Amino acid sequence: MSRISAVMSSLRRPAPLALGLAATLLVPACAKKAQGPPQRPPANVTVAKAIVKDVPVTLDEIGKTVAREVVSVQPQVGGKIDAINFTDGADVKKGDLLFTLDPEPYRAALGSAQANLQRAKAVLELAKTEYARVARLVETEIMAKADYDTKRNGVQVSEAEVRQAESAVETARINLGYCAIRSPIDGRAGKRLVDRGNVVKANDTPLLVIQRLDPIYVDFTITEGELSKVQRQMAGGALAVQVTVPDDPAAALPGEVTFLDNAVQEGTGTVTLRATVQNPKRALWPGRFVKVRVVLETLSKAVVVPAVAPQMSAKGPFVYVVKDDDTAELRPVKPGQRQGDEVVLESGVKPGERVIVNGQLGVGPGGKVKVEEPASAAPAAPAAKSS
Prior knowledge:
The structure is a single chain. By secondary structure, the chain is an alpha+beta fold. The protein has 4 domains: 45-55 and 301-371, conserved putative lor/sdh protein from methanococcus maripaludis s2 fold, CATH 2.40.420.20; 58-66 and 213-299, Elongation Factor Tu (Ef-tu), domain 3, CATH 2.40.30.170; 76-101 and 179-206, CATH 2.40.50.100; 104-177, Orthogonal Bundle (Helix Hairpins). The protein has helices spanning 2-12, 16-35, 104-139, 145-177, 224-235, and strands at residues 43-49, 51-73, 79-84, 91-92, 97-101, 180-182, 187-189, 199-200, 208-223, 240-245, 248-260, 270-277, 289-306, 311-313, 316-322, 328-332, 335-339, 342-345, 354-358, 369-371. The strands form 3 sheets. Strands 1, 14, 15, 16, 19 and 20 form a 6-stranded mixed beta sheet that branches. The longest helix has 36 residues, at 104-139.
């Protein structure tokens, strides 16, 4: 029994070689577990500093330009067009000659009216002479009182006929003047609607449309939710606007709001406004759609960052701020007025802090970042040498 016990005891005792091998395998495994997960490399980002500047608070709307004055030129007398004295599309001044009608019928009418006036004056002189003669005879009681009254009435009738003849002469002279059709306003002529030789009717045949382009109106609408802000600003003085055309957004023309409609449009909930804009270079054309920026006020010393910096999460807008140790801090922000490629941050960022503007997708809160300089133009490759 003792021999059997010895054998069993030797089987239970681990061999030294096996213990050593097990220890060797366990040590690297424990060391690897102690190192933890691999560190994420720094994200490559581009940053910009938050700056302080004065920023206007604006409303951006779409408007349509309208000529300040539109006149449809029509003849005030009928007749045949003798001459056209302008070029289609020309700029005209008030009083410029546009059309000439055949004046001969109106010259003849004026001559006839003048002759009638001379006749009426002659009749009046005769009536006055006869009345004076009768007046002396009545004093001597040779002439009856009835004849005296008749002669006196004849003078009064002749005086009325003279005045009527004078009015006829003036009417004929005016009609003769209407044969020269002149521009009633300063503006730009459109395409003529009749040609030389056409016979036109008085106050019936359109000849031409003239529109005044400087200054010019811009009509646009705002929502009823923006009406109170606009009314407050208009109560304090003129409300400035900046108008741009789509194909030249850099050239903004200044103007001011000169009209606010007296009611909100039913169904749309909008209010119509009209701005007056100086247009000396004809940059604005009637009927064209334009962009209208209404300047409500100016934010003094606002914190401004590039508009690409703010990002959106489930909790709202935020930016990544790069701290001095090159780690990214997530900051909730409240974006405000946008001005071109920049946006105002009403809270969340201080002036001078660096915000990430490119590479946000690779950044995590508290993660390391590597700030890169903005890409610049690559140097030109040297020309190949000829062999």
